[in-house]
Amino acid sequence: MRRAYGRLPWRRGAVLGSVLLVLATTPAAPTATGGGGPGPAQSVILLIGDGMGDAEITAARNYSVGAAGRLAMDTLESEGRRTTFSVDERGRPVYVTDSAAGATAWATGRRTVNGRVSKTHDTDRPMPTLLELARDRGYATGSVTTASVADATPAALTAHVTDRSCKGPADMAACPADTRAGGGAGSIAEQTVAARPDVLLGGGAGHFAQTVTDGPFRGRTVLEQARAAGYQVVRDRAQLAAARPGRPVLGLFAPDYVPVEWTGAPAARGGTTPQRCAVHNPARPAGTPDLAESTRAALELLTARAGRPGAPGRGFFLQVEGASIDDRAHEADPCGQLGETVAFDRAVASALAYAERHPRTLVIVTADHGHATQVLPDDARPAGLSSTLVTDEGGRMRLGYGTALPGEPQEHTGVPVPVAARGPLAHRVRGVQENTSLFGTVRAALGLR
After folding, report:
1. Averaged over 158-167, what is the pLDDT?
2. Which of 6-10, 28-32, 343-347 has the highest average model confidence (pLDDT)?
3. CATH value at residue 135
4. Strand pairing of 199-203 and 316-322?
5. How many whole angstroms separate alpha carbon 38 and alpha carbon 253?
6. Rounded to two decimals, what is the model's pTM?
7. How many domains does the chain have?
């Protein structure tokens, strides 16, 4: 069940986005889900660090490769900034977005209200998404995340619901019009299966275990619906490696969010004793693929699926989300946050390695919004929570979290976020642009209408 803190709805993880932009501030909504000629790119890989603003990137860089070092995401040649605001029901700016509205912006080219997934801000009607457009044009499609595959960011590509909390058939209290009984298309999980991306990897097994209450699959679980749609269901690294591209692949690696990689003491009032992060989380089951492994598997499967009969010359559209950067920042957990940022960067490196071998690939790296992290002087004494970390280069780095009262989760921030790209149309990320513009750039890159 979604919990709301302050003005921003977010989901606490059981263990817990990227934008290329065109100059138009609000691209026109597409009128059809097909059409268009070949674009300059054969494939697009969109990598989203959820809650990964400049401070979160800087902290991960300092800790892992040093202040003068460079992460993989630092090596993309075209760079810019994008604004991140959402809107209210009347279309007026809301200066701090949540992940649902943030992801809807690039998925549909339109802003919406916080908490809503790929539906209009005023009439609450579905809007076509990049994944749907790419699929209908013959591209292979995929989504990889460390959250539930029914969470807000991946859901923005595959579903249309009034509230992001409506993940499974048992979670529909906030979405009566989206239920099948109410004339809608069902929960996020049900809609995601119906959207039929070729590759879907992350957590969320608990949402797929829920029983469908209406429609042709009434009385059966969403997982049974997925199997009936032809999905190969995989649960761990070995099963993922054994998956074959002849049928779509659904990877469910955790009940909800995939457990984080690193652990350590959370930030505290007055600070913490200087600490090193533990890089092996005992709560993370053996055999759980990391984000880079899932990304490489998705790329291999999508490349094979894109070459299937009936899709000549088409490539794929893949979204990859590092979700728990956001979740751990909400909890003022610096080690969990840093570990997930480093894990996300390894996924970026995997995408760039793929693009080296496939030059007509556009790679985009960005975030959906900023977060609470501040990199502070070591002798600072902030009023909020803080933690001192001993970096890999032997320095002491103090991180502060001061956007919430003691005992409450930290909040998102409304700052612009970085965006970087390499490949066809990468130049379009330069400058300060709107959070809706990625939609137009990906559409142009793939030749979609």
Report:
1. 98
2. 343-347
3. 3.40.720.10
4. unpaired
5. 36
6. 0.92
7. 1
E strands, 15-127, in order: 43-49, 78-82, 86-87, 93-94
**Are 335 and 59 within 8 A, CB to CB?**
no
409, 95 contact by CB (below 8 A): no
Chain-centroid distance of CA 250 in Å reads: 17
Question: CA nearest 362: which of 22, 41, 17?
Answer: 41
Q: What letter would DSSP give residue 72?
A: G
Mean pLDDT of 427-449: 95
Residue 371 binned pLDDT confidence (cut-offs 50, 70, 90): very high
**Are the CB atoms for 295 and 320 separated by under 8 Å?**
yes
Half-sphere exposure at residue 268, Cβ-oriented, CA atoms within 13 angstroms: 11
Q: Within 13 Å and on the Cβ side, how many CA atoms surround 298?
A: 35
Which two tokens mark 326? 């956001």
Which pair of structure tokens corresponds to residue 51? 């809650």
CA distance 32 to 447: 14
Write the single-letter amino acid at 141. T
Q: Is 351 helix (H, G, I), strand (E, B) or coil?
A: helix
Residue with more model confidence, 147 or 35: 147
Q: What is the average pLDDT value for the chain, to the nearest integer?
A: 92
% of residues, the chain, pLDDT over 90: 89
- Which residues, listed in sequence order, are joined to residue 250 by a DSSP beta bridge? 200, 233
392: buried, middle or exposed (CB in 10 Å: 19+, 13-18, 0-12)? middle
Q: Is 99 a catalytic residue?
A: yes
Q: Which of 99, 187, 386, 437 is catalytic?
A: 99
Neighbouring residues of 351: CB distance < 8 A, sequence distance ≥ 6: 45, 47, 295, 299, 320, 363
pLDDT number for residue 122: 98
- Residue 109 vs residues 1, 52, 359: alpha-carbon distances, Å: 28, 21, 26
Contact 79, 430 (CB under 8 A): yes
List of E strands, 149-197: none
pLDDT digits (tens, 9 = 90+) for 245-266: 999 999 999 999 999 999 999 9
Contact 166, 116 (CB under 8 A): no
3-state secondary structure of 373: strand
In sequence order, the β-bridge partners of residue 399 are 375, 387
The beta-strand segments (E) located in 171-269 are: 199-203, 232-234, 249-252, 268-269
The range of the structural domain enclosing residue 265 comes to 3-446
